[in-house]
Amino acid sequence: MSEAQRYESVDVEAADGLIQSKGFTLLDVRTPEEFKAGHAPEALNIPWMVSGPDGRTHNPQFMEQVRQAFPDPSQAKLCVACGGGTRGTSAAAAIAEAGYSSITCMPGGMKAWAARGLPTMAEESGKL
């Protein structure tokens, strides 16, 4: 981990191990629509990007939502993932910059998760 990068990048297997045995929460930062289409069980969705009139834009409430879900930065253990890696690395950097100390990022995102055959689930239409 470099001075500028305050989070660790881990592969899918390492991320799954952190979630299964080290108490990390998988923070899925994809849009709610992407999350509903298929996500890891027990994952929490806080979108980095939201749909707006001009397409996707940064979620202005992202850090507020993270702080609400994880109020103690010294106790939160987060593994951040998106679809393929770009949004996840941006979100992980923002979370780490906000003072959260146990942050990892899964650069391959949910595409890599599914490709490894790890469990996913979809939300039923019209039900959350």
TrEMBL record:
Domain of life: Eukaryota
Pfam families associated with the record: Rhodanese
GO MF annotation: an example: catalytic activity
Domain annotation Rhodanese: ranges: 20-122
Name the UniProt record assigns to this protein: Rhodanese domain-containing protein
